[in-house]
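User: Sequence in, structure out. Go.
Assistant: Echoing your sequence, followed by the C-alpha cells.
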Amino acid sequence: MNKPGNETLESKAYRMIKEKIQRGEFQVGQRLIEADVSRELELSRTPVRKAFAMLTVDGYLEFEDYKGVIVKNCAITKERYIEMLDIMELLLIGTIDKIEAKSLTFSNRRVREKATDFLKLEEATERQCMEYQRWFLNEILSYAKNDYYLQVVNQFYDDLLEFGEPDVFQSATKLFDKTLDNYVTCGRCLESRDYSEARAIVKQIINDRILFIFR
C-alpha cells in the first residue's frame, strides 16, 4: 500500500481498517457495515467498499451470505501452524518420492550457496529467516514440476508473514541454524540419491518445529 503521506482514499481506508482489525477494535466475527465504517473513518463509502474488497483478498475479511462482510479469524496460531507443517511434510516427501521414481538428478550447489549467503548476515531478522526457509522449500519442491506445490508453499509463507503469532515467528529464528544445516544435508542426500535419509531429515525438520511450538 502507499505510504500515509502519499496515499489514495482507498489505501487510507485499507490501512485504517486493517489497523483496527490488528488492534482488536474490529473483532473476529464482527459484521462491518459499509455506511457505519465510512462514518467512523470519516471517508466516503466508495473507498471503504474498495478497501473491503482488498482486505477480503488479503485474508482479513470474508463475505458470508445473509451477513455481509465479516472480520475473519486470520491469525496463524500454534494449532494452525502445525496443520500447515503437516501439509508441508507431505509435499516434501511427495517431491522426494518423485525424484526417486524418475531418477532425477538433484544439484545441491544452489542450496549450499544460499546457506553461505545466509551465514553472511550479521543478525538475521525473523522475516529474513522466513524468506530463506521459503527459498529452500521452493528449491526442493521445484523438482516435482507441480505448480500447485509451489503455490501452497508460497501462500503458506505469505500467511505466516502476515498473520503469524509471536511463538510461530520465534520458531523460525530460534531453530534456523539447525534447520539450515538440515536443508543442506537433505540436499546432499538427494544429490547422492540417499532418499531414505532425505525423508528422515524432512521429518526431523518438521518434528523439531512442532516440539519447539509446544515446548
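User: And one key feature?
Assistant: Residues 78-101 form the longest helix (24 residues).
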